[in-house]
Write a structure and sequence with these properties.
This protein is mostly helical and about 140 residues long. The protein contains 7 helices and 2 strands.
């Protein structure tokens, strides 16, 4: 419980109130079992990340298991491995929400992610948001 000096509670709310007032169930960890190409595995994520993955999967008419398999396969095809895959899934969720907040991904859940032009979505992103390949394709357009 956050203790504030006497009288402070009436003057201002805690700086992090928008974060500390999160529903505790949203940060409970859940493990889900699934099969990646016939191999049984388990992934442990906080509930809020599972909710975002469910939203992403629904947008493209997939199950969460199908979405995770596709993300895994495309990550391996692009990077050669799927190191830190659970962390990668968390970053996918954050990127989705950040790109949606930037207006790069439509808020309309009926617009499938697969229908979006990735280059347009990624164009001009800061280096911390996109790897060198995305930055390299965006840089010439930004300079023109």
């Amino acid at each position: 419980m956050l203790a504030l000096p006497a009288g402070r509670a009436e003057r201002e709310s805690p700086m992090c109130e928008i974060f500390i007032r999160a529903n505790p169930e949203s940060y409970l960890c859940q493990s889900r079992s699934l099969r990646l190409h016939g191999v049984a595995t388990s992934i442990r994520l906080e509930s809020l990340f599972w909710e975002v993955l469910e939203t992403l999967a629904r947008r493209d008419a997939m199950s969460v298991g199908q979405l995770i398999t596709r993300l895994h396969d495309e990550l391996v095809a692009y990077r050669g491995e799927a190191a830190n895959f659970t962390s990668f899934l968390r970053v996918c969720c954050l990127r989705y929400l950040m790109l949606q907040g930037e207006g790069r991904i439509p808020a309309d859940p009926l617009v499938p992610i697969r229908s979006l032009d990735a280059r347009s979505v990624l164009e001009g992103l800061p280096p911390s948001w996109a790897d060198g390949a995305a930055s390299a394709t965006a840089a010439p357009r930004a300079a023109a």
